């Protein structure tokens, strides 16, 4: 039949699967301590900080919101693929909790998958958000190798911080939060874009070393996203809201410098300057992680109440169908590139589309460990 000879309209080749790679989180009170041990093994986090973060989880019944968010995203992806006529299985594996990456990758291999596109639930360059996931992939491949299993090739899809399917839903979220503020303070509201604080040294080394100055790709990428959102909001409302990129969820020892200011200090400063309201925009988080539910919705919101400063927290992308479609777009784009085709790469802002393959020295670690899916990968 002629139909069989026509090129597939949505050709995922050479990929035979998509792997959603995430952080993982506890599913109940008994999971909290072992989860935190997994996260912080060898990372030098003070004991007091761990106790404190454990309390954040216990406050929510020991359940991290991240797993439900990932299950919703998996559903959205499967729906999106089916709707687009893309026949590709979608798997899910985590760094720190079940389903663990190694178990998922083993299942994939036993299912016959040999060429895997990987989407990490972190949109930006950094050790924690990029290289560490590549190290996790190398560890999983090494475990399968030790079991005598055939190794799949894993390709990590590019950073999507500036993809319209990631930014569009956030713009809508900011507009909704602004509309939710009392009318008399709305036009003068500040936008506080927030992301995970990381050590200054990790920020400086984020992304391809040669390409970025101080603050590295991590800070630059967030600033680019913030500017795009501010412009899009202005186009809708006619108001150029003052804004700043601020940080949250700092965890290391106090004598080590991390990115600042913290969101709570920032709210205090805004209040001191007579700013009448603010919207917290968690651009650093793909979905409502514990950092969003605790550090913003609980801690920073209480701080604002204490100050008498009206604040709203705008929505994360989560399982928005536009985000699922963006992931399909990234996968098909990379698939075409791997087939040697010229591809169009969607990106807003000034930085342009990120690289497909992390170059040698991208987001260096404190100690050198093998990392897959990059120019320095020991795997094919
Ligand atoms: C940049 C970044 C992202 C964003 C990229 C991405 O989204 O992946 C991220 C995500 C996440 N971080 C998470 C949880 C934790 N992170 C910790 C510790 C740390 N994070 C760091 C950075 C990041 N982390 C860093 C530099 C540390 C210090 C220790 C180290 O250098 O590794 C700790 C230890 C306790 C503490 O001190 O907070 C916990 C419990 C969860 C799950 C939340 C949930 O359950 O919903 C998620 C998604
Ligand atoms: Fe973290």
Description:
It is found in: Cytoplasm. GO terms for molecular function: ferrochelatase activity; metal ion binding. The chain is of the alpha/beta class. 44% of the residues lie in helices and 11% in strands. Strands 2-1-3-4 form a four-stranded parallel β-sheet, with helices on both faces. A four-stranded parallel β-sheet has the order 6-5-7-8, with helices on both faces. Helix 4 packs across helix 13. The longest helix is centred in the middle third of the chain and has 22 residues. It is globular. The N terminus is likely disordered. The structure holds coproporphyrin III (HT9) and fe (ii) ion (FE2). The site of fe (ii) ion has 2 residues, from loops.
Supply the CATH class of the largest domain: Alpha Beta
- Approximate helicity band: 40-55%
* Morphology: globular
What are the bound molecules? coproporphyrin III, fe (ii) ion
Number of strands: 8
Domain count, please report it: 2
Main pleated sheet: 4 strands, parallel
Judged by helices, strands and strand pairing, the structural class is alpha/beta
What is the subunit arrangement here? single chain
Count of DSSP-assigned helices: 13
Approximate strand percentage? 5-15%
Q: Over the alpha carbons, how many angstroms does the gyration radius reach?
A: 21 Å
CATH structural fold name of the largest domain: Rossmann fold
Strand order of the largest sheet: 2-1-3-4
Secondary-structure element order, N to C: HEHHHEHEHEHHEHHEHEHEH
Low-confidence stretches: 1-8
Please tell me the overall pLDDT: 95
**Span between termini:** 37 Å
Proper CATH architecture of the largest domain: 3-Layer(aba) Sandwich
């Amino acid at each position: 039949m002629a139909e069989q000879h026509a090129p597939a309209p949505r050709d995922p080749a050479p990929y035979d699967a998509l792997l959603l790679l995430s952080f993982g989180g506890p599913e109940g009170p008994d999971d909290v301590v072992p989860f935190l041990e997994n996260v912080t093994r060898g990372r030098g986090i003070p004991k007091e900080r761990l106790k404190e973060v454990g309390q954040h989880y216990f406050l929510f019944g020991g359940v991290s919101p991240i797993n439900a968010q990932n299950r919703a995203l998996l559903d959205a992806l499967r729906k999106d693929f089916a709707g687009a006529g893309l026949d590709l299985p979608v798997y899910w594996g985590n760094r720190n909790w079940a389903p663990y990456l190694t178990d998922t990758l083993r299942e994939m291999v036993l299912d016959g998958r040999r060429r895997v596109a990987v989407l990490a639930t972190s949109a930006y360059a950094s050790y924690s958000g990029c290289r560490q996931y590549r190290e996790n992939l190398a560890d999983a491949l090494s475990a399968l190798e030790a079991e005598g299993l055939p190794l799949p090739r894993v390709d990590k899809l590019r950073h999507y911080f500036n993809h319209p399917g990631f930014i569009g839903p956030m713009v809508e979220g900011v507009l909704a939060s602004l509309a939710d503020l009392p009318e008399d303070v709305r036009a003068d509201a500040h936008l506080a874009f927030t992301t995970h604080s990381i050590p200054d040294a990790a920020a400086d080394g984020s992304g391809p070393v040669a390409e970025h100055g101080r603050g590295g790709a991590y800070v630059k990428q967030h600033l680019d996203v913030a500017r795009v959102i501010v412009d899009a909001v202005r186009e809708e409302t006619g108001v150029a809201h003052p804004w700043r990129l601020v940080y949250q969820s700092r965890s290391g020892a106090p004598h080590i410098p991390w990115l600042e200011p913290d969101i709570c200090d920032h709210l205090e400063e805004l209040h001191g300057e007579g700013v009448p309201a603010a919207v917290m925009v968690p651009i650093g988080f793909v979905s409502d992680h514990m950092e969003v539910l605790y550090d913003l919705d609980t801690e920073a919101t209480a701080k604002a109440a204490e100050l008498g400063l009206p604040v709203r927290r705008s929505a994360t992308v989560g399982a928005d169908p536009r985000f699922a479609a963006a992931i399909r777009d990234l996968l098909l784009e990379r698939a075409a590139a791997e087939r040697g085709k010229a591809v169009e790469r969607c990106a807003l802002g000034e930085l342009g589309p990120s690289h497909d393959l992390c170059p040698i020295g991208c987001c260096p670690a404190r100690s050198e460990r093998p990392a897959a899916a990059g120019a320095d990968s020991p795997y094919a």
